[in-house]
């Protein structure tokens, strides 16, 4: 398919907002809501690194939107629009492209994002997808990683470790369980929770690389320590049945849950679990069954450059 046909046939139908101008101009033109601050983020997904080239293309499209929306959720932002970068190889034929567009469109709809534009290239050895998303918050109210105070409690949404098990399944290393595979391939960013945490959470981030490595980042940004009770880390029924332990769950990554702190007297919405507290000092202290647990050497995913 020619680049212009890809844009006309697959992308333009997803780009119905006035801001996108039918993808017929050189750029989008968007009017931000009065008095709101823009929140902007970008995440990349590369074949072999973030997904398998053999994954269903609709799932790849969904996940690209979801991981970006998750960073908006972490900031307490309301989603507005997205710019998409597509670099494809010969393995991504017309069927793959149509499937990708379908999953992408489903996620844009699900998370309230308009497709505003992007860029398309071919000829790369392995597909690489990038997305910039734009959201907005009430001015001065964006959440961040930096506000945790000693005495606050530490919370996490949903369940942790499901996607890591899903990855082992996708790689053929564990018996297939559709619900866990779905947790890897169709993550549900916690947009409603993030928005509800504005004015409640003292610090917030999403968990993409692993709960421990991400908690270390929150602790460092807030200049505090975090005491984490491994027994309190929420595991799904499916993960327990698969034999997952908490110490495995907290380093597995791809969770796209929210990790946040709030004052001890704050009313935290349902769907989150208290897993510890904010303390003076630095770094993480792990506990299980009332005993200190040494920090594992590998605490999550980090790209080596
Ligand atoms: N290549 C880059 N150039 C500029 N900023 C970057 C780059 N990579 C990451 N960042 C910024 O660094 C911060 C942390 O990025 P990252 O670890 O990717 O966050 P997340 O895990 O939430 O996606 C973000 O504010 C992001 O915008
Ligand atoms: C094929 C494959 N291998 C490994 C993983 C696991 N994985 C790779 S990178 C990563 C962390 C998230 O990616 P990153 O680029 O750091 O996203 P960000 O934290 O910036 O949102 C995880 C969990 C995967 N999802 N797919
Ligand atoms: Mg990122
Ligand atoms: Mg993030
Ligand atoms: Mg991210």
TrEMBL record:
UniProt organism field: Polymorphobacter multimanifer
Protein name listed in UniProt: Thiamine-monophosphate kinase
Other observations noted: Reaction mechanism of ThiL seems to utilize a direct, inline transfer of the gamma-phosphate of ATP to TMP rather than a phosphorylated enzyme intermediate.
UniProt pathway annotation: Cofactor biosynthesis; thiamine diphosphate biosynthesis; thiamine diphosphate from thiamine phosphate: step 1/1
UniProt-listed InterPro entries: PurM-like_C_dom, PurM-like_C_sf, PurM-like_N, PurM-like_N_sf, ThiL-like
Family that this chain belongs to: Belongs to the thiamine-monophosphate kinase family.
Function, in words: Catalyzes the ATP-dependent phosphorylation of thiamine-monophosphate (TMP) to form thiamine-pyrophosphate (TPP), the active form of vitamin B1.
Protein EC: 2.7.4.16
Binding residues annotated for Mg(2+) 4, in chain numbering: 26, 41, 71
Binding-site residues for ATP, renumbered to this chain: 118-119, 145, 208
Binding site for Mg(2+) 3: 26, 71, 206
Record's keyword terms, sorted: ATP-binding, Kinase, Magnesium, Metal-binding, Nucleotide-binding, Thiamine biosynthesis, Transferase
Kinase keyword on record: yes
Domain PurM-like C-terminal per the UniProt entry, residue ranges: 149-266
Residue positions binding Mg(2+) 1: 43, 119
Ranges of residues in domain PurM-like N-terminal: 25-137
Gene Ontology MF terms in the entry: ATP binding; magnesium ion binding; thiamine-phosphate kinase activity
One Pfam family linked to the record: AIRS_C
Record field: catalytic activity: thiamine phosphate + ATP = thiamine diphosphate + ADP
Gene behind the chain: thiL
Residues binding substrate: 50, 254, 301
Binding-site list for Mg(2+) 2: 43, 71
Cross-referenced HAMAP family: TMP_kinase
Annotated binding of Mg(2+) 5, by residue: 209
